[in-house]
Each structure stands twice: as C-alpha cells, then as structure tokens.
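User: Here's a chain of 205 residues. Predict its fold as tokens.
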Amino acid sequence: MSTELPMSTELPMSTEKQASALVPTPGQTIGPFYGYALPFEKGGELVPPGSPNSVQLHGTVTDGHGDPIPDALLEIWQPDAQGNVPQRTGSLVRDGYAFTGWGRVPVGNTGTFVFTTVNPGPTEPGKAPFISVVVFARGLLNRLFTRVYLPEDTEALANDPLLASLEPARRKTLIAERLADGSLHWDIRLQGEDETVFLDYQGQA
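Assistant: Prediction complete.
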C-alpha cells in the first residue's frame, strides 16, 4: 500500500514555525512597531536648520518615574511666524521652501527630541502663541494631545482660557523655557509628579 499522503492533507507546523509565521495585526501595532513606518527623512525640519528666524524646540519625554522613553513619537502642528495657519501640502517631502506647519520625529535613545521650526505667531491679536503637540508612546492605547506655549508674552499667557483654568504648578508644564541661544526647551512627562497637562477634545473621534 502506498504511504503517500493525499494532496489535500496538511501537516501541522511546529510551534517555532507557527510563531515565525504570525504577523502583527492592526490591534497589535501600539508598541514600537509604528517607529518602522511613520518617521520620515527631515520629519523634524519644518524649516531647514540654520535658516533665518529658525528656532529649535527640544526636550525629553519621560515616564512616571522620570525615566526617558526611548521609542516615543511626536508630531507638532503650528501657525507660521505671522500667525497664519498653513494650508499647504508637502510635509512628507521637504523642499526647503514650503512651510506646512507640521512635523514628526521619533525621540532618541535618551528620550530626547528636536524640531527645527519658527516661533509661531498669535492667530489673533492678543492671543498667546502656541504649538500643538501629539504624543505616541509605548503603552498608550490612544495618542495624547497637548500644547507648548511661548514664554515671552506674559499678558497673553495670563489671558489664555486654557492656562487660566489651571493651577500654577500645572500651568507651567505647558510653557517652554527660552534658552540663551534662542531655542525653546520643553519636557514632556507622561505620568507622575509634574505630569504634562494633556487635553481632551470632546466630540472628536
């Protein structure tokens, strides 16, 4: 009698082969997986480094213990220096000329990030200029939304509705520090003492 198996019979895979055949599903892409696809060349350069009026926004992303998070991803959205909200496309292919107001960077191994951009102008007279920030990181089921304000216009900061609704200790987590070289230093803490204020946009999917 022949010992050949029928063509339709499938032999079971070993455990090792089964494991190697599995691929992440959309529901499993929360971890560091997004870092393989979302970062792009010059993602943090909203303007070329060293260009007139350019400024660096930099800092560190930390967890509830104050330890750096090495695989977070940040996005920023902002108006230009005159307070105009850009309506231009082309962020994924930087041409060195078009300012789209949007950038994306993965943080470094020490949890640090750097954007090269311009100081945003107020979108309306008397309003406090700020940059919108989105945070993606390990363990986050949903991205986090926050803001970073420029520190100079203290009157506008005092009149900002969001900042005015916060206690002083919480308010300071949203205001950058202007360093001697003109750059903006601002750290993001996801939990614990001095946790950054995060925003909930009600009614937004």
